[in-house]
Amino acid sequence: MASYQTRFGSLEHYEKGGVEAINDDPRHYAFSNVYEVASKSGPYEKVAVARNLKYVLEAIRAEGTSAWYAASHDEAAIIMDGEVEIRLVKLDTPVAEAHEGTKTLEGTPQGRPMGHIVARRGHMALLPKGAAYQFHAAKPGVILLQTVQGDLTVERWKDICQK
Amino acid sequence: MAEAKQAAEAVNQFGYRPFALGGFNFERDEYFSHISWPGGSHTMSVETFLRALIRDLAWNFFYGMVNFDHVFGTTNHYGNVDVFAGLYNAGYRSQNKHYVENFKSEDALAVFRALMDDWTNEGFDPFAAPADTGSAFGPKRGENRQAINRKRLTAKRMVGMKDDIPMRSDATGNKVHRQFLDVDQSQPEVHAEPGFEDEVHAFNFFGYVSRSDVTWNPSVCAAVKDSLICATTEEFVLPVIHGNDRVEWFVQLSDQIQWEVGDRDTGVARARVTMKPGDVAAMPADIRHQGFSPKRSILLVWENNDPTLPELYASKKLKPNPVDF
User: Fold this and answer.
1) Of A79, B97, B142, B157, which sits with the fewest C-beta atoms within 10 Å of its C-beta?
2) Do A6 and B322 touch (CB under 8 A)?
3) Interface test with A, best of B280, B300, B318 (most A CBs within 10 A)
């Protein structure tokens, strides 16, 4: 019986594929790699690697302790590498519905502690609407965040995508 | 809109019923699906035909255009559907040999589901990888309703939450696939304060997907408004050539897939995209694509479910590529 090795990527080891253009412009595919993007990002910089109108997937380098964040809608975090602790607080004053995307909160959020999650590669965590959250990673890791494009979203397609 | 009518119940010498949908007629023998329409006919491997059809039916017709091969397929208009032959084939079009009829989706679904039920033999699972299933071929023998009537999985917020899509485990009958036995199955540590048990939530996403027994069939695992994270396990060849009616994005989570990309309307080759773990690529709104996965792999398909998008792209109010740089 054959044995199989499932290959994942990491900050320390990733190989990129690419676009072999036949009759097209490779830029139409906005081809990038989340590990490469995170390897060149500052801690908790939210770099869009996919955008579909107002929605984005952001590659985030998890390193050290982040600011506190919140959104008026759910967000989902997939841990692509490393171990990340996620601390959650139910906000006394949630982010206004009209504001979309992630918002940085000043200082320590006011509200009831909800708990915390320790997630590793392959785990997905809910960052629920109405909650503040903070990431902590003792060693560098990578988060892929499903959210709405917001004030903190960084777009640098020219730098991250195959041309 | 054409009337959908069903053919008589008579079975042929191989035990299979014929079916009719408007001007289209469908018959099968031991190896092939034979499709005819006013002015033309086409033959496909019945295995290829059934593998394509089940993926279209699983979504009540999939997003956009589903080419079963270079001739036959469907285009979803969300409530009604085009069934076509040669419509997106340059040769057929140049000689005006193409044929298309539009049906109410429910009418076409009823005919195709009855066909799927009759033509799928015991032991053949059209969702499974070829190495994991029995044969589609031969004279009629039994049925496999359990395989073809799987419920489509659509998380409202996230898999594993209360009142949402349940987690998978050995106990639920979802074994880890034999090509994913090395995928870590440990769950995240979730420490919820009293009263917040239903809101503090995380799960092993890769582990969940490693327990899927279907291929090339995305299921929604997390939703943020119209933004849908869909996961799917891919092995062998995508049984359809999918034509987009909006931009979709792929994130390769494990292993490797090659994508052959062509012009949506003509099929003329545009690019070949190789995706390895961590790679992200857009599939523009004006392409068709088919994937090849030598080893079972995990793919994140990211969709925007906004129902206004097909019209916005078709009318060119939106550009087919998602970002400019």
Assistant:
1) B142
2) no
3) B280
Question: What phi and psi values does residue A17 have, to the nearest 5 degrees?
Answer: -85, -140
Contact B254, B210 (CB under 8 A): no
Given A23, A33, A155, which is nearest B278 (Cβ)? A33
Query: What residue segments make up the domains of chain B, in order of their start?
Result: 19-148, 178-213+215-314
Per-residue pLDDT of B236-291, as tens digits, reads 999 999 999 999 999 999 999 999 999 999 999 999 999 999 999 999 999 999 99
Percent of chain B topping pLDDT 70: 97
A122 vs B184, B190, B306: nearest CB: B184
Fold of A36-149: Jelly Rolls (2.60.120)
A131 touching chain B per CB within 8 A: yes
Inter-chain residue contact B323 with A51, CB threshold 8 Å: yes
Query: At A156, phi and psi to the nearest 5?
Result: -140, 60
Mark yes or no for CB contact A123/B271 under 8 Å: no
According to CATH, what is the number of the domain B178-213+215-314? Answer: 2.60.120.10
Instruction: Note whether ipTM > 0.85 here.
Output: yes
Give the closest residue to B64 by CA, choosing from B289, B273, B245, B319: B245
Closest chain B C-alpha to A95 CA, distance in angstroms = 16
What's the one-letter identity of residue B249? Answer: W
Q: Average pLDDT of A6-21?
A: 98
Distance CA B231, CA B228 (A): 10
Tell me how close the Cα of B228 comes to any Cα of chain A, in angstroms. Answer: 9
Residues with Cβ within 8 Å of B28's Cβ and at least 6 positions away in sequence, in order, are: B14, B16, B34, B46, B49, B119
**Positions in chain B whose pLDDT score sits under 50:** none
Q: CA–CA separation, B162 vs B199, rounded Å? A: 9
A positions 58-97 inside 8 Å of B (CB): 73-76, 78, 80, 86, 88, 90
> Cα(B3)–Cα(B292) distance, rounded to whole angstroms?
37
> For residue B299, how many other CB atoms are within 10 A of its CB?
22
DSSP state letter for B53 = H
> Largest Cα–Cα distance in chain B?
70
Indicate whether this model's pTM tops 0.90.
yes
Q: Is A30 helix (H, G, I), strand (E, B) or coil?
A: coil
